[in-house]
Amino acid sequence: RATLLLSRCLLKMVKGNIIVPEEILSFCCNGLQGSTSPPRAREPGEREEAPGAMASPSPARNPTEVQMSQLVLPCHTNHRGELSTGQLLKWIDTAACLSAERHAGCPCVTASMDDIYFEHTISVGQVVNIKAKVNRAFNSSMEVGIQVSYEDLCSGKHCSICKAYATFVAQGPLGSKVRLKPLTPQTEEEKIEYSIAAERRRMRLVHKDTLKDLLTRSPQETELETRDGSGAVPAEKTRVESVELVLPPHANHQGNTFGGQIMAWMENVATIAASRLCHAHPTLRAIEMFHFRGPSQVGDRLVLKAIVNNAFKNRWVPAAGIPFPPSPRPSSPSSLLSGSMEVGVSAEAYGQEMSVSRRHINSAFMTFVVLDQEGHPRTLPMVAPEPGDGERRYREASARKKIRLDRKYVVSCKQTEVPLSVPWDQSNKVYLSYNNVSALKMLVAKANWALAREKEKVRMYTLEEDKFLSFRIEMSVCITASRAFSLLSNLRRRHEWDSHYVSAELVQKVDDDDMIYHVVSQKLRHENKPQDFVILASRRKPCSKGDPYVVAFRSVTLPTHPARAEFARGETLCSGFCIWPESEEMSKVAYYNQAMPGYLNYVTTNVAGLSSDICSTFEACEKFLLKNKEDLISRLQDF
């Protein structure tokens, strides 16, 4: 009743143009929500509870996280009653853009999208759940991670559809770039994504160079298909050209066309091109990493072109000699046939004046399959490319297929599914380097490290997880982080402080940041011969303030250095150094090693003896760093 009287009093004061004190307004509003007493003052640090919030505390949520749920209606589906991939791409781009704008506080545009692999189709009546959040903000761009799953409302079943990473750029007035505020990760998962985002950014920047290198180095190897001409379909017969007018519903509040809308139009013409080759209804399985070259606006005409570049009929051969993944192999021989085709599609824009040259907006490469009634890929007609550009696109499609297999297996699979020694190849060097550094960064971000021993300045931690046993040894050293980074990344000098190393020979200098060494260690206790390793050493300087210097090690296989009888070939899954500057002259040096117990030659059942051995080695490392921190020759030597 008191609340009712206050409300009537407030109404009369408003009608009489009487200024209402803020305290009365607040009290009345709280009273209308069910409060019968004035609001109490919040304690320092206490968060304001949202109206209608439950009394039970809820876990903190990433402020950039956006969740979207869409019910798949008949208007969203194709003739099979399955969700159109173009529609899904529009939803993905919308959710990712909203997440990016939450962090930037200003309009954002899609700059690029990493590879997307669609694991399942979605049927009408099911629900698409999309979760997007910013993984890391750089200067004016940011990476947004997107997870897509579907939910069957009748059975309650949930299934993952795809995982994607998009790059967005924040835009100020008149298209000017906006400097983004840094993002602080909170949970273990967010810290892992934050750390690895820098590696994914590096991989995007060298993606085009990787393809050029493969084509230039061995163009004969990229001709994967044997063409006999019989029954081949001329590629020209699959060519599609279509035009779309950009209307206000296709654009954002700045008038720029939604990236997801452009991707949907591109998927449409690509599907038509694929259908013209197979005379059936294809299913989109993957979209290659692509970049938006420029914006388009309301009123633009978008010309979309598509053509089948190549059709792959050979049996699936693992890339770079990598064996089949541990998942069950297909039971049907026909399912071992790739039965896929690559469709190239481009988008160009022009205004009303045809005299102005067309602006290139985007190019993408999409992989389609045609499934039989059992869900296995059908064999496809071969493609007869046109001379000149057609031949070039044909060879590039074969090269992209090889790179795509490397990237999907090495980058996308779980750490436990990657063989300890992956065959080294020029085509997969970028992705093995990525896997090497990202595996170490994931280990660094792990929680639940337990302090096992502390001896003076050296602290040793252990982490038991599944079948892996991991160690972390850290100490503070009076040396600059860049100097320690230079010394510790040179494996040829490791024998000066690590008694387990006998020698390290530089086998191949891949680039300035990646080297391959042949390492010989001491004799094993149970074998009367020394152990040897072929190790990829990848080093990274900090991407931004707060990042560590990173030196990562993992085993690889080289044809020039096979296992020999005089050595016991060893393997390392993940190890390396992280170095954080603490001040101008002090650094925190941490060494990590993740392995199954049998792979470390000094892992024994005597944990105390093991920790003593490791701590002694690290103390020797400190002496080595202090001794050489003023060495001018070592300062100039990178590796």
Unreliable sequence segments? 1-8, 10-15, 22-57, 219-227, 315-338, 599-607, 632-636
The CATH superfamily of the largest domain turns out to be START domain
Q: What is the number of E strands?
A: 25
**Number of structurally distinct domains:** 3
Q: Report the CATH topology name of the largest domain.
A: Alpha-D-Glucose-1,6-Bisphosphate, Chain A, domain 4
Structure class: alpha+beta
* CATH 2nd-level architecture of the largest domain: 2-Layer Sandwich
Give the percentage of residues in beta strands: 25-35%
Tell me the helix content: 25-40%
| Nearest-integer average pLDDT | 80
Taken from the alpha-carbon principal axes, the silhouette is globular
* Biggest sheet overview: 11 strands, mixed
Give the CA-CA distance, first to last residue. 81 Å
**In DSSP terms, counting alpha (H) and pi (I) runs of 4 or more, how many helices?**
11
Q: Nearest-angstrom radius of gyration? A: 29 Å
CATH class membership of the largest domain: Alpha Beta
Structure description:
38% of the residues are buried. The chain is built from 11 helices and 25 strands. Helix 1 (2-15) crosses helix 2 and helix 7 (389-412) packs parallel to helix 8. The protein is globular. The strands form 4 sheets. Strands 15, 16, 17, 18, 19, 20, 21, 22, 23, 24 and 25 form an 11-stranded mixed sheet that branches. Strands 1-4-5-6-2-10 form a 6-stranded antiparallel sheet. 26% of the residues lie in helices and 29% in strands. It has helices at 2-15, 22-32, 85-104, 188-205, 207-217, 259-278, 389-412, 429-444, 481-488, 607-628, 632-636, and strands at 66-71, 108-113, 116-117, 127-137, 141-151, 158-170, 233-234, 240-245, 283-287, 290-291, 301-312, 340-350, 359-369, 383-384, 422-423, 450-455, 458-465, 468-477, 501-509, 514-523, 530-540, 549-557, 568-569, 574-581, 587-595. The protein folds into 3 domains: 63-204, Roll (Thiol Ester Dehydrase, Chain A); 234-317 and 332-415, Thiol Ester Dehydrase, Chain A; 418-628, Alpha-D-Glucose-1,6-Bisphosphate, Chain A, domain 4 (2-Layer Sandwich). Mean pLDDT is 80; it is low at 1-8, 10-15, 22-57, 219-227, 315-338, 599-607 and 632-636. The chain is of the alpha+beta class and 639 residues long. The termini are far apart.
